[in-house]
Amino acid sequence: AFATAGVAAQLLFEAIAAQARKRITEFNAQNMANTVWAFATAGVAAQLLFEAIAAQARNRIAEFNAQNLANTVWAFATAGVAAQLLFEAIAAQARKRVTEFNAQDMANTVWAFATAGVAAQLLFEAIAAQARRRITDFNAQNMASTVWAFATAGVAAQLLFEAIAAQARRRIAEFNAQDMANTVWAFATAGVAAQLLFEAI
């Protein structure tokens, strides 16, 4: 609630971090995902809490739904906390359940893996295939984040880029400056030609 409202409460977050670490086994999947998301969103460092959640989440990863998986990797990447084993567990789980992911979940997941520098080729391929089929569900930020992530991770996804180019061209008015910049950077970095999209941008 404090993170969503943008209300700073450093001492409260620190107190919760200390208490949550001691009682981490009481947390369910959503509790864990919401907690790391909140700390990352609020910009409050909590290394020991993140490590405790990483260990607990890894062992109970099958309990996480698509949004929990996406929010958790997004939080770790945003907070800059390395958690290789957790990312690997999430990659394996997400790959099997990729049809449960919505556009935001897919975009956040690939963005997180690319930002954290964790290789996940098979996950990216699964998301590329799913995203192509549901490209009309993606908003401007989702599209920009997705191509940025694939380009940053160095994962080729020609058909996905072509689908995003076509969709983005038609909806270019929805893109803000950052979305446009990230999109053209991604296409250039990935070496995917998109003349009409570049002209639209």
Essential attributes:
mainly alpha; 72% helix; 201 residues
The number of distinct helices, counting runs of at least 4 residues, comes to 12
Spatial gap, N to C terminus: 37 Å
Low-confidence stretches: none
Structural class: mainly alpha
Strand content: under 5%
Residue share in helices? Answer: over 70%
In round numbers, the mean pLDDT is 97
What is the element string, with H for helices and E for strands? HHHHHHHHHHHH
Radius of gyration: 18 Å
Give a short summary of the structure:
The protein has helices at 2-5, 10-22, 29-42, 47-59, 66-79, 84-96, 103-116, 121-133, 140-153, 158-170, 177-190, 195-200. It is mainly α and 201 residues long. The protein is globular and about 55 Å long.
Q: Can you give a write-up of this model?
A:
This protein is globular. The model has no long low-confidence stretch (mean pLDDT 97). The chain contains twelve helices and no strands. 72% of the residues lie in helices and 0% in strands. By secondary structure, the chain is an all-alpha fold.
